[in-house]
Design brief:
Length: about 170
């Protein structure tokens, strides 16, 4: 049995097929409210040092990097150790593209509407890095099975630099 399309039906059918083709890669994220939530979990508004402590392994552009957050006896934050961490432009000629280092960290919750919690890193070894000379602030995403730290650089795509709690 053949169907007769109403006048103009063919272009609508082609348009609908094209739109479906464009949307199909997004099918897995249709219930997510952001690209971060679709690939890692919900952006955390707050977090405690105890919830974040542990070792994180790099994914995406962070592959090979690790960060270990340790708590300091009930105080907020603690010590941090990084391996294959990205060097900021200022130190690249001296240290190379990545470095191994140590320092301290703390966590800050979103204080205003729309803000999210962040881990702040204060790298003191191999040398003191001034704010912004290396990646020193990471956003937090969690769901029931995983915790990620990530560079929040483009809200429309899954973050390229992300680390997952192992």
């Amino acid at each position: 049995m053949s169907r007769v399309l109403p006048a103009g039906g063919r272009p609508r059918l082609v348009t609908a097929a094209a739109v479906l083709g464009l949307l199909s890669p997004l099918a897995g994220c249709s219930s997510a409210s952001s690209s971060v939530e679709a690939c890692m979990g919900k952006q955390a508004v707050s977090a405690t040092s105890g919830e974040l402590a542990g070792t994180y392994a790099g994914e995406g552009r962070a592959k090979g990097a690790t960060i270990t957050l340790k708590t300091s006896g009930g105080k907020p934050g603690g010590t941090v150790t990084v391996h294959d961490w990205p060097t900021g432009d200022w130190y690249r000629s001296e240290l190379g593209d990545t470095f191994d280092g140590k320092g301290t960290w703390d966590v800050e919750g979103g204080t205003r509407s729309g803000e999210h919690a962040q881990v702040h890193l204060f790298i003191t070894e191999p040398r003191l890095f001034l704010r912004g000379y290396t990646l020193d602030a990471l956003s937090i995403a969690t769901d029931s099975k995983r915790t990620h730290l990530y560079e929040d650089d483009d809200p429309d795509v899954c973050p390229a630099f992300r680390l997952r709690l192992t």
